[in-house]
Structure formats: structure tokens, C-alpha cells
């Protein structure tokens, strides 16, 4: 079958070597019977395999000792490759998955794909032990000019101005229920007074003459 893809070794024992992918299944390892032979002590005899699926190759680790990585992530199962992805075998061997184009076109295509992929996030640099971190210089503090601290300030009242004064206490209003009780009592007393006055008036109006003659207020001969 015509080769549409290839692996290019970027680092390893034969850096720059091109491996055209011309079969439906390709074995990668140190054994000479593999389609892609890499003579490196970190590579297992049967390290990984590629098999064609659809329009791309799928990469699978074959239980290697040092692992197979794509983009820095260790493979734990089959992984469909994309153009420009970097395959790492162990720690020192890296392969780039590319289209099988002329060298100039393949280089441009691989570079454009790698530029589109985000790079690894760099961890923040930790300070070296034994060297203190530089601290920001403190801001200088200048004393205020003489008399400036008292401008615009109201004078504080002296303690003697309040000596002997009784603090004001707000009077509390009596409860409304008490006012209502007092009002009712006053009304009752007024009614009793009015009734008493009426009774006395009626009695005096109807009193007989003998009753009036008991009081020494009449002139002589007024009473029989």
C-alpha cells in the first residue's frame, strides 16, 4: 500500500531517520524483526505498535518497561495520532508523526501543527535555598511639620466643664393602660358627684317647711 504517513526521529540513536508507514500494522521496538527498529537500551524488544484505523494510525503501548508517551502523557490505551504529535519512547527517543510529503512540505506542515498546539506550562521558579528573597524597600516616613497636626482640629472640652452636672435621663412616658385606668376612675367619680348633687337638689326642692325651719337662718316669725 502507498505510504501516506511517516515517523521522523527527532532524538535518539539515529536522529533524523525517516520511517515510512507502509503497512496496516507496524511494530516498534529493539528487536530486528520489528518494522521500526530502534537500538536503544531504554526501548523494549516489542515496545509499541501502530495500526491503521480510518484515516490515521492508532498508537498502543505493548507493556513496555519505560512507557510510551504522546505530548508528555503516558499511554494507558490505544491513542489515535494527529499530524505533528510527538511520540516519546522511554526518556531519550522522540518520534514525530507526519504526512509522507516531500521534505520541504512536510517540514512546513509539521511546524504549523506544532505551532498551533499549546506548549507545556512552565512551573514557577522557586527561590534557591540559602538565599533570602529580596524584600521591597520600605517607604520612608517623614515627621509632620511643627504645628501641622493641630490645624483644623476643634479644641477638646475640659473635664472641669462637666464637673457636678447630673447626666440627663430621658423621662419615660407612663404606659397607656395606666392613663386609661385613671381616666375611667375620674369619670366614675364625676358621675357619682353629679348623681349626688342631683339627689341633694331634689331632696331640698321637695323638703317640707319644718325641715327648713330647723336652720337658724330665717328671720323671726318666718316659721310657724
UniProtKB/TrEMBL annotation:
Stretches that traverse the bilayer: 182-205
Keyword Transmembrane tagged: yes
Coiled coil: none
UniProt keyword terms in alphabetical order: Membrane, Transmembrane, Transmembrane helix
Endpoints of the signal sequence: none
Keyword Transmembrane helix included in the entry's annotation: yes
Residue span, FHA domain: 26-75
Pfam families, A to Z: FHA (PF00498)
PROSITE patterns for the chain: FHA_DOMAIN (PS50006)
PANTHER family listed in its UniProt record: NUCLEAR INHIBITOR OF PROTEIN PHOSPHATASE-1
Name assigned to this protein: FHA domain-containing protein
Amino acid at each position: 500500500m502507498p505510504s501516506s504517513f511517516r515517523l521522523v526521529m527527532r532524538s535518539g540513536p539515529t536522529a533524523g531517520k525517516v520511517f515510512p508507514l507502509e503497512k496496516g500494522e507496524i511494530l516498534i521496538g529493539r528487536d530486528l524483526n520489528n518494522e521500526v527498529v530502534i537500538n536503544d537500551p531504554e526501548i523494549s524488544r516489542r515496545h509499541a505498535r501502530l495500526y491503521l484505523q480510518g484515516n490515521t494510525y492508532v498508537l498502543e503501548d505493548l507493556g513496555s518497561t519505560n512507557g510510551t508517551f504522546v505530548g508528555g502523557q503516558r499511554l494507558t490505551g490505544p491513542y489515535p495520532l494527529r499530524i505533528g504529535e510527538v511520540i516519546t519512547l522511554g526518556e531519550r527517543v522522540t518520534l514525530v508523526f507526519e504526512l509522507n510529503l516531500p521534505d520541504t512540505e512536510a517540514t512546513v506542515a509539521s511546524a504549523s501543527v506544532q505551532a498551533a498546539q499549546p506548549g507545556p506550562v512552565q512551573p514557577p521558579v522557586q527561590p534557591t535555598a540559602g538565599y533570602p528573597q529580596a524584600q521591597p524597600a520600605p517607604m520612608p516616613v517623614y515627621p509632620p511639620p511643627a504645628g501641622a497636626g493641630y490645624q483644623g482640629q476643634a479644641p477638646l472640652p475640659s473635664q472641669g466643664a462637666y464637673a457636678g452636672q447630673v447626666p440627663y435621663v430621658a423621662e419615660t412616658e407612663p404606659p397607656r393602660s395606666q392613663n386609661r385606668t385613671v381616666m375611667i376612675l375620674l369619670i366614675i367619680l364625676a358621675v357619682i358627684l353629679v348623681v349626688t348633687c342631683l339627689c341633694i337638689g331634689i331632696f331640698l326642692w321637695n323638703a317640707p317647711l319644718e325641715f327648713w325651719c330647723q336652720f337658724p337662718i330665717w328671720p323671726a316669725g318666718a316659721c310657724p
